[in-house]
């Protein structure tokens, strides 16, 4: 509830940035992606596959930023940001990031990798808008490609959500890779998370591949909050900026 009991809402956006390149890594488009993200006017942005560092690309890629990709995207519009490093390789690393117009009081990255499979994480941020008496708990998610991996990661996500303070708003957004649509039921029954497109339209949005979306991979879940205007931004101006369609919504607290 807001500190002065007046209605308060935030706009959330989630997008898989594909490390700042077009499909098949043909062209570096991070500056164009930043311009597009700005037009949405989101208060909180959840990003997946964000490059934290790379030693080779700056040597031959034109317009490569001097800062990390998440700092470059945050620029002057989002005063706070957090990054969770997941995949590490000789040239650098990438992971999830959260950009916020409001103070991020605390953040931590939870490794949910299973065995020797690709590295995955849950980036948790406790965000404190001054208008609210309680914080917003935001979790940026990128789950694995294998079904058994995802099922184990969904259990870990549910356990983490259940450990948060009761009654406080929780937002979970990202790339669930859940092409078989197995996540909604356990997340709702085990952790009280509701997927906003499913609540509004009966099923998650089709987001992948962005040129002809068939698979319902990307999600926004809420707990102790309401949502309106769930929107898939697979507009002409976005289609070359990621292989996933971005999702946005107004979250009412």
From TrEMBL:
Positions of the Endonuclease/exonuclease/phosphatase domain: 33-244
InterPro entries listed in its UniProt record: Endo/exonu/phosph_ase_sf (IPR036691), Endo/exonuclease/phosphatase (IPR005135), GPI-anchor_lipid_remodeler (IPR051916)
Signal sequence, start to end: none
Lineage: superkingdom: Bacteria
Pfam families: Exo_endo_phos
PANTHER family: CALCOFLUOR WHITE HYPERSENSITIVE PROTEIN PRECURSOR (PTHR14859), PGAP2-INTERACTING PROTEIN (PTHR14859:SF1)
Protein name, as recorded: Endonuclease/exonuclease/phosphatase domain-containing protein
